[in-house]
Design goal:
The protein is built from no helices and nine strands. By secondary structure, it is mainly β. The strands form three sheets. A five-stranded antiparallel beta sheet has the order 1-2-5-6-9, with no helix packed on it. A two-stranded antiparallel sheet has the order 3-4. The chain has a two-stranded antiparallel ribbon with strand order 7-8.
Length: 106
């Protein structure tokens, strides 16, 4: 069960608390800006629950521009504050990353 009431064993790789926030601001008809924030509390990550990874909060930012020709361009940055965090102890997640993409809708 989700709260593991049937056993004293700790649930592995599962944060006790998790929160995801997303906001999007449509600046004009073709242009919008979005921001995300994700919080996860600590988690146990060894097979015997002897190791614990710290909780973390990471944020991202993106801009989207929809062209009249059906193309959409996105530019963004993930982990904008360059936070060091891990899901599994000793295996860090990527630092700040940038991305750009373009899509076409027909």
């Amino acid at each position: 069960d989700r709260n593991n009431r049937s056993s004293d064993a700790r649930l592995l790789d599962t944060p006790r608390h998790k929160l995801f926030l997303y906001a999007n601001w449509k600046i004009s008809q073709p242009l919008s800006v979005g921001v995300t924030t994700q919080y996860e509390s600590e988690r146990y990550n060894a097979s015997d629950a002897s190791l614990q990874s710290a909780g973390f909060t990471v944020s991202g930012l993106r801009a989207t521009y929809k062209m009249s020709s059906g193309f959409t361009t996105r530019l963004g940055v993930e982990n904008i504050f360059d936070k060091y965090y891990t899901y599994d102890d000793g295996f860090p997640e990527p630092s700040r990353t940038y991305y750009a993409n373009m899509s076409y809708q027909f």
